[in-house]
Amino acid sequence: RLFCRKPRQVRQLTTAKAIVLPRPHGKSFAHRSELKQAKRIVVKLGSAVVTRGDECGLALGRLASIVEQVAMLQNQGREMMIVTSGAVAFGKQRLRHEILLSQSVRQALHSGQNQLKDMVIPVLEARACAAAGQSGLMALYEAMFTQYSICTAQILVTNLDFHDEQKRRNLNSTLHELLRMNIVPIINTNDAVVPPPVPNSDLQGVNVISIKDNDSLAARLAVEMKVDLLIALSDVQGLYDSPPGTDDAKLIDIFYPGDQQSITYGTKSRVGIGGMEAKVKAALWALQGGTSVIIANGTDPKVTGHVITDIVEGKKVGTFFSEVKPAGPTVEQQTEMARHAGRTLASLLPEQRGEIICCLAELLTEKKEEILNANRKDMELATTLGRLSQPLINRLSLSTAKLNSLAIGLRQLAVSSRDSVGRVLRRTRVANNLELEQITVPIGVLLVIFESRPDCLPQVSALAIASGNALLLKGGKEASNTNKILHQLTQEALSIHGVADAIQLVSTREEVEDLCRLDKMIDLIIPRGSSQLVREIQRAAKGIPVLGHSEGICHVYVDSDASIDKALDVVKDSKCDYPAACNAMETLLIHRDLLRTPVFDQIIDLLRTEQVKIHAGPRFASYLTFSPSEVKSLRTEYGDLECCIEVVDSMQEAVDHIHKYGSSHTDVIVTENEETAEQFLQQVDSACVFWNASSRFADGYRFGLGAEVGISTARIHARGPVGLEGLLTTKWVLRGEGHTVADFSEQGSMKYLHENIPVPQGSFN
């Protein structure tokens, strides 16, 4: 049966048109990231997905969201097919209604009364339910897909349609013709006539698979039609290494042929005739035939609306079946390794952690030629490909001076960090022989995601070592060669005390969004990169705290009482020392009284000499006859030799401008008026506020922190340059002698004292 109400062009889903080209079949995708290339896709909907909880009728809302996703992918140019259950459930609903109606009429006629006795519904035979429900199920699909101007076609099959050569060729030809006409085939087993499944009759070799349920049907169809991707939706998240719901059950991200012994099958779903074991067998059979397979949850209301599109986009959803085993551990395994070794790292003596950091500092200078050679490879590749902007290329570059500066900072950190982990912050005598301590402890497992800047790796690694934290590092592929050698040196330093696994470099094809979902394994995410990267991570990491700033829109305000020499020095250094840095000046605010004065003229001449492109703010542009290009937004981070100039009437107006357009990063006032300066320092609500000093001082090394993981504009935990202290939290330790809360009740014998006990400087637990 072919259903087609209106031309497909009448209504298109609002989605970007993807160009998906057919690919040679015969080899499945090796990585999730390749699933975006899938042209021909089968979506298998299990009984638990399409059926309501009472097993009588369909889950219409869930089915509608699935249809919308299939329609979206179809309108992107892909070839979509659906293998669906649900005919039995739909038919059961209809037959129950008919039986109840019939019984109520008979009882009314026989009794002559309106009050009816309890009616008993007989057991309904599945084939009869399927016969009654199939047409209604198809009509429902037709109505739903028509909303997206997509035609559908119904195909019912049995085992004979695949085992009879002529029927198999006819089926193949029909499906290819439907796909050619942009029609979505809706396929189901003909449950009205299909015989009961024969035990152990399926999967008897490479070329044979019996159609005893929709799992085996989807697998057979996928191989027959040379499908790129089979998405099997069920009522579980995917495969687990033990029965789902048990305490130790872990979702298996990637499943490989031969791993069957590593999983334990639970019971089958509440409806349907298959089970997880049948799904795995069918998936492996399809994988062997060249089709990639993912088993995922199609019933979870949190993800049902985007589960199919997420899978096609390569996101980490469900269990991915792959024939290619990665050379190294998975990111989950890396996290476990890091956490285990991190606990050992935290238990080391402060001197031992200091030795590791000093060793890393020595390696940075000893192996500088190897590091710089690796960096040159990254620079050459970045320049050849032309994908990076000049500011990012500048951040990618390493030099002997940078490495020497890193080594100095690390040695400084090694000395200053010896009074960090385990430091006693507070001691209280709660009662007699009951003492309480608050001590510093590591946060746990940190995930640092950074772009372009390979010098970030040793900095962050040293801070993690000093604070006793485990660390996952995810660097940009543009710095892969440099990151690799720096990580090797870091692990070499860690190995002197047997904790090499405490710092892991994630080099697999993990998407940042997937890493941000590891909320049960990662305790804090620290992004280092563009404002876009930080915003994406903040959106994705719903269950993990994120420490960082989204933008570095730093201001320098030149007051009417400013010294010309100081103003020139501060403006030049803030903008020109390192324009790509997040603490570089992006907006220059000038008091109105300085316009058309030698001070203003010299500032403009300075910026022109340094080849800084000037964008005029609205008020500044209004004062000029011939002005530079007017700024598009006063909230812009240029990251290059560009800046905005705007005019303000007073210090208070400068403060208001900063609060409206700034990013709470670093803001500067240049003035000789101490009262004005103090008001500015007090009123500006930024992480760093300076008087007569360059914004470039906003840096952990320059603050004497030794190193930093970044600059935070958050309001809690840590703010400004985040060094060692920002990577520590606290715990409370209580020592008693069998004390109970009952001892302190009205009838108890003890009283609270809550006496503060002096804590000697350098006291450790």
From TrEMBL:
Keywords carried by this UniProt record: Amino-acid biosynthesis, ATP-binding, Kinase, Mitochondrion, Multifunctional enzyme, NADP, Nucleotide-binding, Oxidoreductase, Proline biosynthesis, Transferase
InterPro entries recorded: AceGlu_kinase-like_sf, Ald_DH/histidinol_DH, Ald_DH_C, Ald_DH_N, Aldehyde_DH_dom, Asp/Glu/Uridylate_kinase, G-glutamylP_reductase_CS, G5K_ProBA
Record keyword Kinase present: yes
Domain Aldehyde dehydrogenase per the UniProt entry, residue ranges: 330-596
Superkingdom as given in the UniProt entry: Eukaryota
Catalytic activity: L-glutamate 5-semialdehyde + phosphate + NADP(+) = L-glutamyl 5-phosphate + NADPH + H(+); L-glutamate + ATP = L-glutamyl 5-phosphate + ADP
Alphabetical list of Pfam families matching this protein: AA_kinase (PF00696), Aldedh (PF00171)
Domain Aspartate/glutamate/uridylate kinase, chain residue ranges per copy: 39-297
EC number: 2.7.2.11, 1.2.1.41
GO BP terms, alphabetized: L-proline biosynthetic process
Pathway: Amino-acid biosynthesis; L-proline biosynthesis; L-glutamate 5-semialdehyde from L-glutamate: step 2/2; Amino-acid biosynthesis; L-proline biosynthesis; L-glutamate 5-semialdehyde from L-glutamate: step 1/2
Compartment annotation: Mitochondrion matrix
Coiled-coil annotated residue ranges, if any: none
Keyword Amino-acid biosynthesis among record annotations: yes
Family statement drawn from the similarity comment of this UniProt entry: In the C-terminal section; belongs to the gamma-glutamyl phosphate reductase family. In the N-terminal section; belongs to the glutamate 5-kinase family.
Subunit architecture: Can form homodimers/multimers.
Protein purpose: Bifunctional enzyme that converts glutamate to glutamate 5-semialdehyde, an intermediate in the biosynthesis of proline, ornithine and arginine.
Database matches in PANTHER family: DELTA-1-PYRROLINE-5-CARBOXYLATE SYNTHASE, GLUTAMATE SEMIALDEHYDE DEHYDROGENASE
Official protein name in the record: Delta-1-pyrroline-5-carboxylate synthase
Organism name: Astatotilapia calliptera (Eastern happy)
